[in-house]
Structure formats: structure tokens, C-alpha cells
Amino acid sequence: MMFDAQHNPYKAKRQVTYSKNGMVATSQPLAAEAGLTMLKKGGNAVDAAIATAACLTVTEPTSNGIGSDAFALVWIHDDKKLYGLNGSGPAPEALSIDVLKEKGITEEMPAFGWTPVTVPGTPAAWAELSRRFGKLPFKELFEPAIRHARDGYPLSPVLAFFWNNAAKRFKETLTSEEFSAWFETFAPGGEAPQAGDLWQSEGHAKTLEAIAKTDAKAFYSGELADRIDAASRAQGGYLRKEDLTSFQPEWVEPVSVNYKGYDVWEIPPNGQGMIALMALKTLQDDTFATRDTDQTFHYQIEAMKQAFTDGLHYITEPSDMTQNVSSMLSDSYARERRSEIKGEAMEPKPGDPSSSGTVYLAAADKDGNMVSFIQSNYMGFGSGVVVPGTGIALQNRGHNFSLDPTHDNALKPGKRTYHTIIPGFMTKGDEAVGPFGVMGGFMQPQGHMQMVMNTVDFKLNPQAALDAPRWQWLKGKSVQLEQTVPEHIVNGLLRRGHKVEIAAHDGAFGRGQIIWRDPKTGVLAGGTESRTDGAIAVY
Hints:
There is one protein chain. The protein is an alpha+beta fold. It folds into 2 domains: about 25-250 and about 360-400, no CATH class; about 255-355 and about 420-539, Gamma-glutamyltranspeptidase, small (S) subunit (Glutamine Phosphoribosylpyrophosphate, subunit 1, domain 1, 4-Layer Sandwich). Helix content is about 35%, strand content about 20%. It is built from 18 helices and 21 strands. A 7-stranded antiparallel beta sheet has the order 1-20-19-15-14-9-8.
């Protein structure tokens, strides 16, 4: 292994986990067990990932749902190849800047209600992954999720915390009729469930059964599509059955940079994985002797703020980008951006490359196949809209569109927006190292950078890499730190001109999972998030 298995200076709640036959790491124990069940039945890592993902729509609805989007990176050991799947959906054909302008919406896309709802891609992504790479029958993968939805399960502590926070916020702000089905589903009787309380949803169970029986066709062209269309029309939404029927997830070529001998892989735009790659490439020639110094934090933050500023300016549907991927990841542009980093914090601005509420899971099987999978509603429970009687909580990905028609990410009918959710993967030569990810909005590329550097530069094992204190760039010179960041780093960053904010809790810093594979022995080493109800299921 490429790390010191015994070294974890961060007072881990758990030690690194090892296995030979299979491993599933995610943020909820019941979902991890669902994936492990499929491995024990003879399924592969793809089967395990789908079962886990379906279960997470039930057991962690605070972060994702049946109406989510999804992305996947799939390593097939026999092919020695990494495959990418983009399961993000486009804006409805009836939605445009001009349509919103007529309704007085000119400054920003709404965050809640039907307006920011784009075509959900997750059910189609499940079906497509199963069709191409799965071993078990698609229907069988949904049995744990359906059982938990129908019979109920007790809420875990962190899940209950975020669930109750959302319910309190929604109760104050989402008061119109279009949100009533959300409260009926997730706050029955007017109150959100507490830790240890049983929660069940027959609507979830029936919807998952319909998806399972029809390879997701019910969601896009059948009975569920009809119900989504009817609810959208009744509440003044723009999503129609035609938008659902025409959707297909897209197989894409993953993009990568080499960072100190390791290839780090992401999904290409419209996802924000490019930001992590750009930041890493900026620092590829730097040597960091120690992780926990203000100098290390400073250079990481400065490289990330440059990359993020570029990403927010340029990343969108590839056909609408005014810069191309190769230019943004070029050696010359990385050197140019690195030359701009000095000893003090700077105000970031976009460069010119041409001149030079999410769940994450990782799965691995005994044959060397591995999956990095992420799905999300966005901003917790998403749009606040639930299709009545179905348990389908819809994402609000359209909120990221710009209403400035000159912006690369300007809203257009049928266009996919800049997307925050990103799965990560690492290889060395022609061998897989493994999947990794950190969920949590705009924290995700920042978490990816920190996980890679924790592993490659500082030799931390997967659990230590996740447990290490995190930072998050916010805007300008503002950076947020976890409470566990040592005081000497805080003071050092202040001296360098950073505007430092210490977070009240660790909920803002994402939730990650890592599985690394030893190519010689096939032994899997996994870490799971200590900031949530993380779990690793192995056998």
C-alpha cells in the first residue's frame, strides 16, 4: 500500500478497514449493507453500487432522492479501463430566460419550487449501469431499499439532525401548496422524525418497485412520468413527460491529470471535477514536507480559489463553453496560474486558458472492479417538491443556471447546467488505485484535492485522510476552517491576509469515502466519514 497503515494523528473514530472479497463505503449503514448483500449474492461492484444508491434514496433522503441526478466512474478490471457516466438531466424545453423574465424573475434562478427542477437522471443512470456492466437482475437490486421504505427504519443521529433542520427551515419558508406533499412525506403529522424514530414511506416503496420492474421506463415514459407531468402542470412547473421520455444518460470519457505519479480522474464538464484537477495541476511541482502548516494550507487554498474562479466562469454544457478542457488542464496554463500565487492571500479572478444537500458511495468486488458513484438532490432535500403519493423528491439543479444570456452557463431549454456532484478515481500506470469522493455542494472539488494530497503527499491511510481537518474556500479572501484545525495554522493564515472563519460545526465540510486496492494482493483498504453516520460493509 502507498500509505502508512498505522499512522493516524487525527484521533480517528475508527481505524482503516481491510477486506479481500468486497467492500462498500457510504454515509449510511443500512445502505452499505444493501450493497454488500448484492456482493454476497454473486453480484459485482456495479450491482453493489446500484443497490446502495437506491437504498440511500430511502435511508438518507436529506441528501438525495429518486428525483436526483447521478454520475459514476466505473473501473472494469479485465478491461484495464475507466468508464464515465453522466446522469445529469437538462432543463425542460419550456423553460428559458425569456419565460422567466415575463414572470419577473431576472436576477437569479429560484432555489425552491418547480422552476429549478431539471430532468432527474438517477433512475436512468441506475438502469444504464446495470445494462452495461451489472451481473444480477436489475429488479433484485432494489429489494433492500423497498423493504426499508415499506417496513420502516430508525433514523441515525446525524441523519435526524439534518432532517430536523430542513423541516424547521421549510416550515418557515415553503408555505405554498406546491410543498404540501413534502411535509406529508417527510414530516408526517407536522413534525420531522427524531433519532431512533421509525420512518416509512409506501410511496417510496411503490415507486422503487415500478422502477425495478421496468428498468426505469416507468419513470421516463410510463405511469410515474404521467404523475410527474400532471403535478408539474398543476403547480405551474415546466417539466413535461416529453422531457423525461427524451432523456438518456451519457457515457463520457473521463478526464485526468497526473499528480506526482498518480492519475487523478474526474467526469468532464458539465461537472465541476475539472476544478479539482486544475488545482492539483497547479501544485504538481511543489513539495510539501508537512501537512499541518499554514504554508501548506495557504498554497492549497490559493490554487483552489484560482481553479474555482475559472470553473464558475467557464464550466457548463461542453458545447457552450468558451474554453476547452485541454486548455484548462494544460501545463502552460498551470504554470501561469502557479506563478500568480504569492505568500499572501489574493483576490481571485478568472484566467484566460486560451492564452497559455449529496450522497457518495464507493464499491469494490473481489475481481478488481470498482465504482465511484454520487447522486444528489442539491441543497439537502432539493426543490422541496415531492410528486404526491410517490415519494419522488425532485432536485433543484436548475438553481445553478445563470440568467445572464452572455454567461457560459446561461439557462437554455434542453441544456445541462454547471453541476456540483463529482465522483473521483485514482490510478497508477494501468492499475486502479481506487474510488474516492467527498459530497457537499461546492466543497466537493475542494475535498477531492485534499483527499488526493493527503494520500499522495502526506501518505495518510484512507481513514486518516478523511479524518484530517478540512478547509473550504468561500469567496475572495474568505476561508472557513474546521474547529480541529490547529491554532498555529489559523494564526498563520491570518498573517497571510486570509479572512478566516471557524465553522460552528463540521456539516459544511462534506462527507467522504475512500477505497484503495493493493494491485499485488487485491487487498482493499477503506475509510469512511467520521463526520456522519458513515459505514463500511465488508466480507
